[in-house]
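Sample intake — 1-acyl-sn-glycerol-3-phosphate acyltransferase
Collected from: Sulfurospirillum deleyianum
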Amino acid sequence: MKILSRIRAIFIAIEFSMTVLLTIVLMYLFPKSTRTIRRFWAKMQTYLIGFHIVQKGAMAEETTLLVMNHQSLLDIVTLEAIHPRDLCWVAKKEIGDIPLFGHILRAPRMIAIDRNDKRSIVKLIKVGQERLNEGRILAMFPEGTRGHGDRLLKFQSGAKILAEKLGLIVQPAVIVGARHVLDSKTLMANGGDIDVIFLDPINPKEDEHWYEKMHDAMSKTLQEHTSSK
């Protein structure tokens, strides 16, 4: 089984790389259709990789910041496939620095930040407001890095500062099963379901402890749904 899982992961890595490059080219050729192109690519991945997305809970229309736990490369693919709005992902600068593939951030005008630069939060707030003015929704992984899938890591402060400075409505979403379908760290892949559980939206102005409570709610939801799989 491990051999088959590894072979499957290698196939996915090759397919993923090729289609990402094609997607980048198409987004540069058709800059007004980047959202349509990304969504088509994401939906295509569900068939090529062989997984099914199960949505639980409703996406709130008033959301301006979407926050999620981070397990796998498929987290972004999953949300791109099911979310109706044009998401603007906040990613670490290192992704944008990757030769050729870094254009996956530049072509659709995502936000890349340098976590080692204290001025990055100023850039995040400024560019974040610009993307909101364009009608996009900001999307972040407050953990800052990929976790093991069964527990939530400590949240970094970026999402909290961004939400409070710009007066955003935050909707948390919990992703379960993405690492089982594709673990890019160990290069193992399996079919199956990826669950996305949307929790109630939050207005930070209503509770000064909203960030800590959101972490607790997401952590509890992740543990409950992980144990039930």
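Post-analysis note: The first helix runs from residue 2 to 29.
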